Amino acid sequence: MSSLSLRAPAKINLHLEVLGLRDDGFHELSMVMQTLDLADDLTVESAPAGQVSLRCSDPQLPVDGSNLIVKAAELLRRHCGRPELSAQLSLSKCIPIGAGLAGGSSDGATALLLLNRYWDLQLSAAELQPLAAQLGSDVAFCLQGGTQLCFGRGERLEPIQRVAQPAVLLIKNPNVSVSTPWAYGLCKERLGSSYLNSEVDFEGRRQALRQSPLVGWLQGEQPQLPPLRNDLQQVVAPENDSVQKGLALLASAGDPLQVAMSGSGPSLFALYRDQPAAAAAQSALAPALAENGFEHWICQFTAERHG
I want to staple 137 with a disulfide (CB 3.0 to 4.6 A). Which of 27, 153, 287, 306 is the partner? Predict the structure, then answer.
């Protein structure tokens, strides 16, 4: 085939709980993640034998071997023992960079799916999943998408059969970024005294999330969405004026179900009962969002990815 394209959706965290530290030095997490219809587009075309290259619509994004798209391509070739495989990859960037929306992770996951198809490798989802986990903590989720409980570093997935269909008003100041390692370091400094220390305790918190009002609401079994938890928001917001201002603006418009930060930030979102409610809030907030430097999008939840 001459070319092939696939969308790379953003995600938000509906729950992000830092349970403690793992033996490998990473944090043990208990999360609910959800993909959105805000997405990058990745295209692959033919290239000279053995050549893998990437170009991107956003000049800020590196296109060398540090990019997860290139890493995914090289990992696939090594895994299959096919160094002669080639690809010219092109990324149309729509997800903000460094925003807590897993844009880079989603691009890497999409590269695995796209090249598996383009190169006719016929690897199953089960075979792609450990490759995704090698690329990064969020890549395994992005490979599957939809609504998922995510444990471990984020690579242990349990799908949620979602009924809820809220609308999302998403905002992000393009001039503000948050370092994920810094956010987790600050979390350890500020909240480390309350970290859990055993697998028994970790599993207790996982089970609590499985049975939580949030999961019940997503499944249509609870009428009211409870407050959303993000432990990183607790430590990032006091240090970041943009996050504080954005959360206050979102809480002030219309009748949001809940307002929260995604991941390590600085992207923020409000959930509304439907698209008209989100659009009305966006319209009411537009002057204040512009004054404070926020870009904004109305999004909806998307389902799991297949192939």
Answer: 153
| Domains: count for the chain | 2
Tokens coding 75: 């990992």
- Catalytic annotation present for 71: no
Supply 203's token pair. Answer: 């599993």
Structure tokens given for 62: 């590196």
CB count in 10 Å sphere of residue 151: 21
C-alpha to C-alpha distance for 57 and 109, rounded to whole angstroms: 19
Which tokens sit at 85? 């495989």
Point out the catalytic residue in the list 40, 107, 138, 231. 138
Written as one letter, the residue type at 134 is: Q
Respond yes or no: is residue 138 known to be catalytic: yes
Residues 200, 66 share a domain: no
Q: Which residues pair with 29 in a beta bridge?
A: 18, 152
Three-class DSSP category at 79: helix
Tokens, residue 256: 């949001």
Note whether 238 and 175 are same-domain residues. Answer: yes
Tens-digit pLDDT profile for residues 31-77:
999 999 999 999 999 999 999 999 999 999 999 999 999 999 999 99
Give yes or no for a contact between 117 and 275, defined as CB atoms under 8 angstroms apart. Answer: no
Structural domain of 135: 3-159
Q: What CA–CA distance (Å, rounded) separates 58 from 192?
A: 37
Indicate if 114 and 153 belong to the same structural domain: yes
* Domain annotation covers residue 305: no
In whole angstroms, give the CA distance from residue 43 to residue 92. 8
Q: What is the CATH number of the domain that holds 93?
A: 3.30.230.10
- Encode pLDDT of 155-173 as tens digits: 999 999 999 999 999 999 9
CATH code at position 212: 3.30.70.890
Residues 50 and 147 in one domain: yes
Which 3 state secondary structure label does DSSP give 228? coil
User: Are 125 and 171 in the same domain?
Assistant: no
